[in-house]
Amino acid sequence: MTYGPTHQADPRPRPAAHPAPTPLRVGVILSDHFTLSAFALFIDHLRLAADEGDRSRPVKVQWSVMSATPEPLRASCGVLTTPTSGLIDPKQLDYVVVVGGVLHAGRQINEATERYLRRAADAGTRLVGLCTGSFILCRIGLMAGRRACVSWYHYQDFLDEFPDQDVVADQLFVADGDRITCAGGAGTADLACHLIERHIGWSAAQKASQVLLFDRARGGGEAQPHPPMAEKVREPRVRRALLLMEQNLAVPLPIAHVAEKLNLSTRQFERLFHATLGVSPATAYRRMRLRYAHWLIGNTDRSVTDIAHAAGFADCAHFSRQFKEAYGASPSGQRRMAEPEPDISNIASHRVYS
User: Fold this and answer.
1) pLDDT band at 227 (very low <50, low <70, confident <90, very high)
2) CATH of the domain at 273
3) 231: in domain
4) Closest CA to 130 of 211, 194, 61
5) In percent, how much of the chain has pLDDT > 90?
6) Are residues 299 and 347 in the same domain?
7) Residue 48 to residue 45: CA distance in whole angstroms
8) Per-residue pLDDT tens digits for 7-20
9) DSSP 85
10) Nearest-5° Cα angle at 134, 40 to 232
């Protein structure tokens, strides 16, 4: 029996309904004593990009704080974060993000999480290491054949632990195939914007960045904020060159190699350095190494020979002559006088000559 009026089917074809776009799916793993700022900046950018306005609905992006156990996870500052889910099937995720933190002797993630990360790698899910998350991925063998990015602050720690790993510390983040590693800090915001722009669009990335009062999103290849030696240098390529030099004091890089890293010819590089600092790259590099040696003389009991090698001088007699010319006393004499380190942060005005 039919109730009510009957209607003939409309023969005209109806337009096909457009399926809702698949949201970007991100699972986050927090290590023991994770860095709260790296986690918060990354997630808050995803939150702002996921919905219109500031409604925080996980529409265009979905994220979960995953853990093998339900216990709260402690940040390095002591704040506790409760997981929102167990370890999700990695095939259901676009990215698994590992947030590192304080480097310490204890285990940063448990065995169940290590097994999960290996399973995610086998499934082809892209793995991201934030802050010292790159250390975690390397420790469980998931960065073989790929470049890792770390903070200049942890560069030597990384080299000591992974001497055969290809690593950079002069960029904000590095995407190498299905692995992305980020130096941490404010760079996590830039990486979040990079992923948002890639999967959702530039306007969503811009919105998230502007709401959080970031001036602009930086590309992964931009230089990390520099250590003190380069803090007064505004030219970005010279800043990056000084950072590369700072990270390679014991075995100095050839100047041509540094120039190549900046996509410059050696001649262009020399001209840029002279225009910016008034000295050659080789002179700036030598002053940097002497500055490091001076610090070692005043702050350690290492032998002069050991300090000379640590500062990249194979010939101890040559090192002593260069040191005396720079500081007015031999390394041994400087140690006896125990004077505070003079301010030679202005490379161009220091007394070592080429």
Assistant:
1) low
2) 1.10.10.60
3) yes
4) 194
5) 67
6) yes
7) 5
8) 344 455 554 544 55
9) B
10) 75
